[in-house]
Amino acid sequence: MGVWGPNLYQNDIAIDVRDYYKDQLTKGKSDYVIIQELIKLNENILSDCDEVPVFWFALADIQWSLGRLDDFVKKQALFHIQNKHDLKHWELENPAQAKIRRKVLSDLEQKLLSPQPDKKKIVQRKLYNCDWKIGDVFAYKMESDLAKEKGIYGHYLLIHKIDNDYVFPGHKIPVVYIKITNSNNLSNCINEYEQLDYIQIGFTRYEDRFLPIDGKRPEEDIAEKAKLKYEVDKYGFLPQFRLKLLSTSKRIIPKKLIFIDNILTFTPPPKEFIPHNKLSIPASSWRNFESMAIDRYFGNNLHQYQIYASTIK
């Protein structure tokens, strides 16, 4: 448990409980359901005598503040205040701040025993679920100044949905491959689909294939993943082709997209490295989509990035 002070929300557990409770309310869940979810998600904390009081203190506090204090939650919080285990823990571990903690818990006790405010209305957050199906292919015509400068004005980017992911606070977004046409003729793109180039979105160095995300180990077991075979390209890199499109509302998806077909059988990119955690898949907004795709095509596919010049074997 990360703790940096004696106040109620100066530790990770209290903040996580408070934020989870508030976030789930905006999704339209009932208080009962959220409480049960929190209990299930925090079984380890609830079995730790030093951490369990913090859980109930935070939950009772935020519920009272929103006029939603549950009787069971109130009973648990008051029990842990009155048995003084948390306070004794502070007196043992940090006597200098135990006096502040005593005041914090006394104030919380008085708060929980007082009439709570009227139940506050929670504005429910609307989450967008992109309705593209797995296999859907859309054409995006390149018409930017950058496309003109690069000599590919009027060519198309073919966006092929292959998976789903979620982005805060819960929007469902597509994970895609991108191909690029050789001309501004779209009529034969399906017949020629297998021959068209995948745009390489990025690369991972072989030695970084298990690099932790945000300081945490990947969810998958590293020992198991190490058994997989990885094919590096001629520069010693593991090429990545997957991209998350930040389609968080219908209005931001370009209206000029042309639905082409639904393709479920296709040859995947050669030597593709699939990140072990979807958090490692690059993401792009629609605003930057075209410039990003052009930059990656010339930089990675045509090896114009400087890093390729310095790693030729």
> What profile does the largest beta sheet have?
7 strands, mixed
Quaternary state of this entry equals: single chain
- 3D shape: elongated
Total DSSP E strands: 9
Give the uncertain stretches in residue-range form: none
Distance between the termini: 47 Å
Bin the strand percentage.
Answer: 15-25%
SSE pattern, N- to C-terminal: HHHHHHHEHEEEEHEEEEHH
- SS element count, helices: 11
Please give the structural blueprint.
Blueprint: H1 12-26, H2 31-41, H3 43-46, H4 52-65, H5 71-82, H6 85-93, H7 95-113, E1 136-141, H8 145-149, E2 156-167, E3 171-180, E4 197-198, E5 202-205, H9 222-225, E6 237-240, E7 243-245, E8 258-262, E9 283-284, H10 289-301, H11 306-309
Parallel strand pairs: 7-9
Antiparallel strand pairs: 1-2, 1-8, 2-3, 3-4, 3-7, 5-6
Helix pairs in contact: 1-2, 1-4, 4-5, 5-7, 6-7
Please describe what this structure looks like:
The protein is α+β, with helices and mostly antiparallel strands. It folds into two domains: 12-113, no CATH class; 136-309, no CATH class. Helices cover 35% and strands 15% of the residues. It contains eleven helices and nine strands. The chain has helices at residues 12-26, 31-41, 43-46, 52-65, 71-82, 85-93, 95-113, 145-149, 222-225, 289-301, 306-309; strands spanning 136-141, 156-167, 171-180, 197-198, 202-205, 237-240, 243-245, 258-262, 283-284. Strands 1, 2, 3, 4, 7, 8 and 9 form a seven-stranded mixed beta sheet that branches. The protein has a two-stranded antiparallel sheet with strand order 5-6. The longest helix is centred in the first third of the chain and has 19 residues, at 95-113. It is elongated, with a radius of gyration of 26 Å. The model has no long low-confidence stretch (mean pLDDT 90).
